[in-house]
Design brief:
By secondary structure, the protein is of the alpha/beta class. 35% of the residues lie in helices and 19% in strands. The strands form three sheets. An eight-stranded mixed β-sheet has the order 8-9-11-10-14-18-15-16, with helices on both faces. It has a seven-stranded mixed β-sheet with strand order 1-2-7-6-3-5-4, sandwiched between helices. Strand 12 and strand 13 form a beta hairpin. The protein is elongated. The two termini are 30 Å apart. Bound molecules: ligand BES, magnesium ion and zinc ion.
């Protein structure tokens, strides 16, 4: 048994779990044993030939595993489950076999994540507190430390619910009760590497859970000041050196000439806050990455008011800022050799006597002017000033993340975030990192044609919502592009992925905030550090 890594986030609302490394199935008493199985282990119309842990389990219950598998026609398809009691013939009450599909086809961490998320959600609903969990999928080229990390991240993130405001907690539907995971690894495994990846998993999961919490909290709690205070707290509690944080209030933003951002904010009784975080590593950094998150704490649409149904969920219009705030939390622990700037222009988009109007012409911090033809296209207006200010810090690349358009939900559903860019190398690095991290992004084209709609047909330099009803996501991206100049830039539109409603993802049960982007960004920064 190796040293313990404990995950102890401060919030009571999220799971705490400890991970241990162990070598065998049966060394510690557990509520549940989780083991993976391949389709080749359970051939159709043939007697299963089991080895390894499956054999050990089958022997312990006198051929019981084979009998149950036959009875249930278990074929070990990816994500299929076989759960049965073992009557303490091993040091556990139950066994859960999770199908990994065909051995030949298991070559991607996302297959591991899928099997793990299904298994761990069942484990959680069985109220298992202690689990002996085989690190599965080692037969092919996948790296054991990476598999362990994937399993740890999914374990901490897949069983999630936000029940803080329920006065009667539903104890029968017990989620997030897992306390201890004994990860079973082969005796030849490089424990140090696994431990290092597990630590990263814990930091990553904690960052995602923070982002989720910010998104899930209602908009009467999470206002611009709340976001700013959250970052203040993270920085204050951190022992990491090289951190600076500036919170700009309305007057500060006026001095800087942020006429676009402040116009969106002016309809709300909540004062806007501009968050400017900076991390400078001790070592000399060749890279300086700026992250900018859309931080609309509630999007009513403003005077171009949204219909009731479309407004219902608009507390999540700060999911981009939640992702970069989660990232800040991770940055304070990862000791990265990269300079990082994070910015959020936080405000609320409200209709009122002081609200900005369709027809208004605004002067942005860059000096460029824009006519407003729809106050509901507010995200890009706030981003205009925030990406411009971020570029003034001279980053080597800038990445913005925003719940920007309903059009991206039409195009990609909740399955993938839209990626748009002015630089294919940066885009490819991000795409690779997100793929590795298990978050899907899909690139949308940025043909010149799309630019016309936002830079023509108005008496100002730009028209915020564009003139045509086509290619809405690209129009939004083209608008933001006007403010990044030559800086390599990627825009992520997460309107579809920030809150899955149709199905569970590996990381997020449906109808919950995903915290999308945090894992991909962490992976991107890690890859850059190597
Ligand atoms: N926050 C919305 C985008 C959005 C829509 C996010 C659905 C999540 C789900 C954004 O501010 C918005 O309202 N965009 C408009 C732009 C349009 C007026 C050009 C939209 O997509 O309808
Ligand atoms: Mg809007
Ligand atoms: Zn919005």
């Amino acid at each position: 048994m190796s040293e313990v890594i404990a995950f102890k986030p401060k919030s009571k609302n999220i799971m705490t779990a400890k991970f241990h490394l162990t070598k065998d199935l049966n060394s510690t008493k557990a509520d549940l044993i989780i083991v993976g199985a391949y389709q080749e282990d359970f051939p159709k119309d043939k007697e299963p030939e089991l080895n390894g842990f499956l054999n050990e389990i089958n022997d312990a219950c006198e051929n019981g595993l084979i009998q149950i598998a036959k009875l249930e026609a278990f074929e070990a398809k990816l994500g299929s489950l076989l759960v049965f009691p073992i009557f303490n013939k091993l040091k556990a009450e139950r066994v859960l076999i999770v199908g990994l599909g065909s051995k030949k086809e298991l070559n991607n961490l996302n297959q591991i994540r899928k099997a793990c998320s299904i298994a761990i959600r069942r484990a959680d609903s069985l109220k298992a507190k202690t689990i002996n969990f085989e690190v599965f999928g080692l037969e092919n080229k996948l790296d054991i430390a990476q598999i362990s990390r994937a399993i740890a991240e999914v374990t901490l993130l897949a069983p999630y619910k936000f029940d803080k405001y329920l006065s009667q907690k539903d104890e029968n539907k017990k989620f997030m009760g897992i306390e201890t995971i004994n990860l079973i690894v082969p005796s030849t495994a490089a424990e140090k590497q696994i431990q290092a990846q597990l630590e990263k998993a814990l930091i990553s999961a904690e960052a995602v859970l923070l982002a989720r919490e910010l998104i899930a909290e209602p908009p009467n709690i999470v206002n611009p000041a709340y976001l700013a205070e959250t970052v203040q707290k993270i920085v204050k509690e951190s022992s990491q050196t090289g951190l600076t944080l500036k919170i700009l209030n309305k007057a500060d933003c006026e001095k800087l000439g942020m006429g676009a951002f402040l116009a969106v904010a002016q309809g709300s009784a909540n004062e806007p806050k501009f968050i400017h975080f900076h991390y400078k590593p001790k070592v000399k950094a060749s890279q300086h990455i700026a992250f900018v998150g859309k931080g609309i704490t509630f999007d009513s649409g403003g005077l171009s008011l949204k219909p009731a149904k479309a407004m219902e969920k608009m507390k999540y219009d700060m999911a981009g800022s939640a992702a970069v705030i989660g990232l800040i939390k991770a940055i304070t622990k990862l000791n990265l050799p990269i300079e990082i700037t994070v910015m959020v222009a936080a405000c609320e988009n409200m209709p009122s006597g002081t609200a900005y109007r369709p027809g208004d012409i605004l002067t942005s911090m860059s000096g460029k002017t824009m006519e407003i033809n729809n106050t509901d296209a507010e995200g890009r207006v706030t981003l205009a000033d925030s990406v411009y200010y971020a570029c003034q810090q001279k980053p080597t690349a800038i990445i913005d993340i925003a719940t920007l358009t309903g059009a991206i939900v039409v195009a990609l559903g909740e399955t993938a975030a839209g990626l748009m860019t002015n630089n294919s190398e940066l885009a490819n690095n991000l795409k690779q990192a997100f793929e590795e991290a298990g978050e899907r992004v899909w690139e949308m084209p940025m043909y010149d044609d799309y630019e016309e709609s936002v830079v023509k047909g108005t008496i100002a330099d730009m028209l915020n919502a564009g003139s045509g009803g086509q290619a809405g996501s690209q129009n939004g991206a083209m608008f933001i592009k006007q403010f990044v100049g030559e800086t390599p830039w990627v825009h992520l539109d997460i309107a579809g992925t920030c809150w899955p409603e149709k199905r569970d993802t590996h990381f997020t049960p449906k109808n919950n905030p995903a915290g999308f982007g945090v894992l991909g960004f962490i992976k991107y920064l890690e890859n850059l550090s190597q």
